[in-house]
Amino acid sequence: MKVILDLDTGIDDALALAYALAHPDLELIGVTVTYGNVPVELGVRNTLVLLELLGAGDVPVFAGTQPAGFQVKPISAFIHGRNGIGDVLLPPPRGQVQEESAVEFLCRAAREYGEDLVIIPTGPSTTIAAALKAEPALADTRIVMMGGALTVPGNVTTWSEANVAQDPAATDFLFRTARDVTMVGLDVTLQTLLTAAETRQWRGLGTRAGRVYADMLDYYIRAYAAIEPDLGGCGLHDPLAVAVAADPSLVTCFDTNLACETTGTTPGRTIGDVARMKEPHKAAHVAVEVDAPRFAAELMDKLNSLLQQH
Length: 310
Hints:
There is one protein chain. By secondary structure, this protein is α/β, with parallel strands linked by helices. It has twelve helices and ten strands. 42% of the residues lie in helices and 16% in strands. The strands form two sheets. Strands 3-2-1-4-5-6-10-7 form an eight-stranded mixed β-sheet, sandwiched between helices. The longest helix has 20 residues, at 208-227. The relative contact order is 0.16. Residues 3-296 form the Inosine/uridine-preferring nucleoside hydrolase domain. GO terms for molecular function: hydrolase activity. This is Nucleoside hydrolase.
């Protein structure tokens, strides 16, 4: 299947990127870059650099939009590092961002590939919502998003997850417009885990890519140890969304129609849409259980193979 990643390229986005490249059933036809963990400009740089590191410098990268006055939140800088990739220093990319915008590319891809296309957003929904407004055909495209929290507390407020909190209105529009959206949220991503035992495997490969990914993830694990010491590692948020896009059987979903609250006392809350509860078509599939051991094993198998080559 053909996939587009919509990344705010921090450390778990870097894992998602590598997993998409490593999975034999996924053809990464482009990466659109949004804001969140880092500003769009830095996210573009990180994406280009990582694609080249992983031998995929031919994958095109497209810049999305960013709200005026956007500032990276201190907690994001702490978790992902000042440069978004664990303060690992990499040389400037040789490639360039595409002149075509992220929205234009998403719209074109929806028209060209139809049901063969899957979009995987792992940041705020801003770019995806703009594309849905611009191209009606995109509403029929399968979307597997990392974001939201239905049965567990949020990680920004007690009700809101970080990606959704950046642009609740865009997430609400996505939920009300897209006809097939899987929400891979904190309900399942916090059940997955990567530890220093795994990063030692990557370091032991003796390759540049293995060392870079080990350095990034060790930084991420240390940040998690400071803010969630009981977890024992780092959550695998964004790569789980990629894995579910390739293999939906990894998760058990609750089918419903979702909304995202944009006003009142709980903006950013992802919740069932009361107005559409009785509609027979359930557009949203909320992951509530995950086969974490199988996912972790598949992630390590695929990433070990990819990182061994570079």
